[in-house]
Amino acid sequence: MKLWNPTLYDTQIVPLIYLNGVLFFVAGLAIIRSHNIWIYGWQTLITIIGYVIIILGTFRMFFPQLQKEEFDNNSFIMTLQIILVIVGIFLTIKAYFSRKK
User: CA 59 → CA 21, 35, 85, distances in Å?
Assistant: First the structure.
C-alpha cells in the first residue's frame, strides 16, 4: 500500500500554480497583519512562517514555470511535508497549552 502519491505534482498546470501562489500570498499577508510579534519565544515562529509564505506565494506567482519543473526530487518533498507536519503539531500544542499572563 502506497502512503504517498509522488505523481500528484506531475499534473499541475501553470494557472493552477499561479492561483496557489495568490492564495499563499494572501494567507501569509493575513498572518503578518494579525500576528506580527517579534519577541523571544515560540510566537516568533508564526511570524517567520507568515513571511516565508509571502515569499513562496510571490515566487509561485511570478515564476510558475520553475515551480512545475522543481518537483523531480520526491524524497525532498516527502521530507519537507514531514517537517511541516511536525511544526504544525508543535504550534498546535504550544497554542493549546499556553498560559495566559
Answer: 7, 22, 22
- The residue among 58, 61, 56 whose CA lies nearest residue 84 is 56
32-54 pLDDT, tens per residue?
A: 998 888 888 888 888 888 899 99
CB-CB contact of 60 with 21 (8 Å): yes
In a domain, 23, yes or no: yes
pTM: 0.70
5 in a structural domain: no
Domain that holds residue 62: 11-96
C-alpha–C-alpha distance, residues 50 and 34, integer Å: 10
Q: Which residue in the block uniquely carries the three cell numbers 493549546?
A: 96
| Nearest by Cα to 12 from 52, 65, 48 | 65
Domain total in the chain: 1
